[in-house]
Amino acid sequence: MSDESRDKRANESEDQGTGTREAQAANLFDLRRIIGGLFVLYGVVLTIVGLGDSQAEVAKAAGVRINLWAGLGMLVLGLLFIAWSLWRPLGRQLQEEERKREELGGSSS
Length: 109
Prior knowledge:
By secondary structure, this protein is mainly alpha-helical. Helices cover 86% and strands 0% of the residues. It is rod-shaped, with a radius of gyration of 24 Å.
């Protein structure tokens, strides 16, 4: 009896571990994080370049520090993408969708 209960617990923990592992893999390769990280990286570079723009470069852009503003915009957009992926992790979204499908499938039987 104790061997059966141990086997049952081992199988349950393996099932839970697999679900967690799949969620971690989904979160790791979430495109929102990759795209957000790239926007943040390019935003930092453009912001630094924009802070060092000469007056001649500002005059060429009709008096607007375009590199600075574009860099700040990219920083904000990148941080929004990263925040979105942290607030709504892909692993959790996939689990919720799977749960909804199971409920719909179970209610129609």
